[in-house]
Amino acid sequence: MLLAEKNNYPIDRALANVQMSRISGSSLVNDADELAVEEPLEIRLGCDVEGKRIHRAVSITMRTPGHDLELAVGFLFTEGIIFARDEVAGLVACGAGNVARVNLRRGSEVDLSRLERHFYATSSCGVCGKASLDAVRVCPRSRPVDGLPVVDAAVIHRLPATLRAAQAVFDRTGGLHASALFNSQGEMVCLREDVGRHNALDKLIGAQFLAERTPLTQSVLLVSGRVSFELVQKAAVAGIPILAAVGAPSSLAVSLAREHGLTVLGFVREDRFNIYTGSERIRHAGAMNPLLDYESLEPPPLI
What we know:
Order of helices and strands: HEEEEHEEEEHHEEHEHEHEEE
CATH architecture of the largest domain: 3-Layer(aba) Sandwich
CATH superfamily of the largest domain: Cytidine Deaminase, domain 2
Structural class: alpha/beta
């Protein structure tokens, strides 16, 4: 049985105490509350350019402190800057902890054109800083095997409760997104939280990349919010075949998932979910005929 990698957040950095007032009906009470911290992280890349070693800032993202080096590595991997674990020679947390530097080994070639992006990205959007439309797309190096893995619908039904039970910082704040990786039997392998849903996924993928587990061809990913184009792209780059979400997918997310052969599930909650692409990977005895092409039928109603 695979054991889940715990969040291990530095709680003193991930949580902030604030004074506030509670109103209930006609009464007002002064009180304190805990909020999830949102701080900038500068991601730097150490690499060789024309025979000279440079350290270049490639992005600033607003994130919740914790697993910053995984975030930096996951970002560079899902952006198509690095491809293999042996390219990474070292990881350094600089300054007061709000700078993460990824040093590449000598001789590793970097496509600097992929770094064409504005310097700042908010916690809610990871692609809004892109400098050109061409820079938005990343081409995955592997494609999931058609129809594999096959996962029981009952396993999908259990995932949200498992995710929710493991969200340590969310329990204190109610203000974090989460990405969780499961095997095909529904056992949690890894969980990461962040104020930014794309950051949570980069942290998760970065952890697996550093452990040399990518591509994640037998995995199921569950995200706590909606499914955007960027989350599908990051999952595709990591080789994840099944992406499930508590919320809704966007039309572009569904289109991209179909292009890359991913299964996308939405509104996974309360023992029900919608299948938008890749229905052949979901087994539901007695309720679905595997000979039918469900993607050609009318879409299921939104829940």
